[in-house]
Amino acid sequence: MSEVFITVGNPRFRLGNRKIYYMGNGFVITYSPKMFRVENLEAGDDFDKTEYGSEGEYAVSVSFFKSIEDLKSYFFLRNEHYDFIESEFGKTVEIVDDITTDSRLGELSSRLRIDSRGKGYSASESRTPIDGDFKFRNITLYWDKFEFLFFSQDKETQMGGFSFILVD
User: Which of 22, 35, 83, 165 has the most C-beta neighbours closer than 10 Å?
Assistant: First the structure.
């Protein structure tokens, strides 16, 4: 992680005991305490994660969230206080290939499904148990090494965040 911090600057703070650093301006970096590679990915949920190397902090993904609420929801930060600066959030970020954080769920989902250019596309909906019932959490569109996050099921909702996966 020290090489990452040299490039992008030091983190503002760590999110509790999670392996997540808040970098500022809505960006977070997740890390693993060991290097790893994913094998047998074709098996779906039964893939193999092989750890190797010495203990340390190895960057796994860089994520951006358009709002504090979406960041807190995604990382389950319900009753924790952090010194986020409200004015740093809400900005539009251009991600790749004319995809921005202003992209809407319905339009982006259709576009990626039709034009995945061999990069692979899938989507999932996450739910979380709340008061004995599974409530909607978010929709994730997976494309290449990106995860585009939407925190509403409405096809007109704008992207709430995204992650770029750094490991193969």
Answer: 22
The tokens of 168 are what?
């193969």
Quick one: which H or E segment has residue 113?
helix 105-114
Write the CA distances from 136 to 11, 41, 74, 105, 149, integer angstroms. Answer: 31, 27, 12, 15, 13
Domain definitions of the chain by residue range: 2-165
- Report the alpha-carbon distance of residue 166 to residue 162 in Å, rounded: 13
| Residue pLDDT tens, the chain, 168 long | 667 676 778 889 999 889 999 999 999 999 887 766 666 655 455 566 666 667 778 788 999 999 999 999 999 998 889 999 999 999 999 999 899 999 999 999 999 988 877 678 899 999 988 888 999 999 999 998 999 999 999 999 999 999 999 876
